[in-house]
Specification:
Order of helices and strands: HHHHHHHHHHH
Radius of gyration: 18 Å
Helix content: over 70%
Region (Disordered): 1-24
Shape: globular
Mean pLDDT: 87
Distance between the termini: 19 Å
Oligomer: single chain
CATH class of the largest domain: Mainly Alpha
Strand content: under 5%
CATH topology of the largest domain: Tetracycline Repressor, domain 2
Number of helices: 11
Low-confidence stretches: 1-16
DNA-binding region: 56-75
Keywords: DNA-binding, Transcription, Transcription regulation
Domain HTH tetR-type: 33-93
Number of domains: 2
Structural class: mainly alpha
InterPro entries: Homeodomain-like_sf, HTH-type_TetR-like_transc_reg, HTH_TetR, MftR_C, Tet_transcr_reg_TetR-rel_C_sf
CATH architecture of the largest domain: Orthogonal Bundle
């Protein structure tokens, strides 16, 4: 994506923070969110202290002051606590608000960089820890591949609405899977290199590769 293209995208749409685009929540939803966050923070704290394998769901539940059954109700697997976040609804809302004539790749580029910027600014340590675990723990990397299927389905339906294609359109599914695959590989690459690179620039470059192909 050229500097002119990025500038045009920025000027056509104001700076958006995913926190500001979260759908309104009632009391019950806010309580659920508070519980999810408490479980996730307890998990990261325990993992930092004793490692991933040594951290049990029972320990997480005790640290978060909930029951083990509550942990499993919110997160079906321990890996899900590390991998999930609360921003999918906001990302979907931002995607649907993008200009109608914007190419799908640029729309996804916008929401992905918005999300990454938010994580780097507000949840930097958790992002580092999550990425390190993705690199070091095979079970987390495997589970990430599974959970990305759910994210892909969400994005496919939103892009189908924007493009007029059917939700089961194979080209749309391949395109979305390729973008998410690029995000996964860039994130792992960033972690393998000790987090020394600019993650947003890496993602931007990966999407440019998808757009223009691999130059020989």
């Amino acid at each position: 994506m050229s500097d002119n293209d990025r500038m045009a995208a920025t000027t056509r749409t104001p700076d958006l923070r995913l926190e500001d685009r979260q759908p309104p929540m009632g009391l019950r939803e806010r309580k659920k969110l508070k519980t999810r966050i408490a479980i996730r923070r307890a998990t990261y704290r325990l993992i930092a202290e004793q490692g991933y394998e040594a951290t049990t769901v029972e320990q997480i539940a005790e640290a978060a002051e909930v029951s083990p059954s509550t942990v499993f109700r919110y997160f079906p697997a321990k890996e899900d606590i590390v991998l999930t976040d609360e921003y999918d609804p906001a990302m979907l809302q931002v995607l649907r608000s993008r200009p109608a004539d914007e190419p799908p790749l640029e729309s996804l580029r916008f929401i992905m960089t918005c999300a990454l910027r938010m994580f780097l600014e507000n949840e930097h340590d958790e992002l580092i820890q999550r990425t390190r675990l993705m690199v070091e723990v095979p079970a987390i990397r495997a589970r990430m591949t599974e959970t990305m299927t759910d994210t892909a389905q969400m994005l496919v339906h939103a892009l189908a609405e924007r493009t007029g294609r059917a939700p089961d359109d194979v080209a749309l599914r391949v395109f979305t899977a390729a973008v998410l695959g690029a995000l996964r590989e860039v994130t792992v690459y960033w972690g393998e290199r000790g987090f020394q690179d600019d993650l947003i620039e890496l993602v931007d470059g990966a999407l440019d590769t998808l757009k223009g192909g691999l130059e020989l």
